[in-house]
Amino acid sequence: MSLKNLMGAMNLARWIIVMGGLGAVALGANGWRLYHQRVELEAALEPDGQIERTVQKIQLLGKQCSKLQSDADREGLSGQSEPILYFRGLASDPNVRFGQVEVKEQSPQVNVKGTEDLQYVLQPQVDKGQPRDRIVYYMYLLESKSRRVRVTSITLTPEQKVKEWEIANDMWKWTIELTSRTKVEKK
Length: 187
Description:
Elements (H helix, E strand, L loop, with lengths): L2 H6 L3 H34 L4 H25 L8 H9 L9 E5 L9 E10 L5 E2 H13 L4 E10 L12 E13 L4
Antiparallel strand pairs: 1-2, 2-5, 3-5, 4-5
């Protein structure tokens, strides 16, 4: 029989049978695919399955992210492109009140592989003495608000020159040298 004769012999009942058969094959294939998907999802939901492991990994990464974020928030230099803003900001603290601070940056040094030490020299712009307690508190703030900054040297000279038997006021001119250590990112 040829295709022309076969098509000519088709009536409505035969078309319904053929289309129903093709639909049954398509529905069977789709059902088989959905069955395998359901089996994989049930296996992932079992104890110590893929979903439980993924949830544990997300929780661990969330805790690490929270810890790193809190470390970065405590770090005084975070989010600032210039440490000079950090030094000047602390100089205007209500307990320090130095006003403007002159910051001189020296060339970076590499003492330990993978780190870079940036050295700064801080001096008040006004050539006027400051009380020792404010100077000490400023150095404390510099170190306590940033884990990267350390005071490496300080020079104090009395504001007024007096003879050794005279009592001087407690005002001092100062120069602070400090070091900021950063990691060098490899490119």
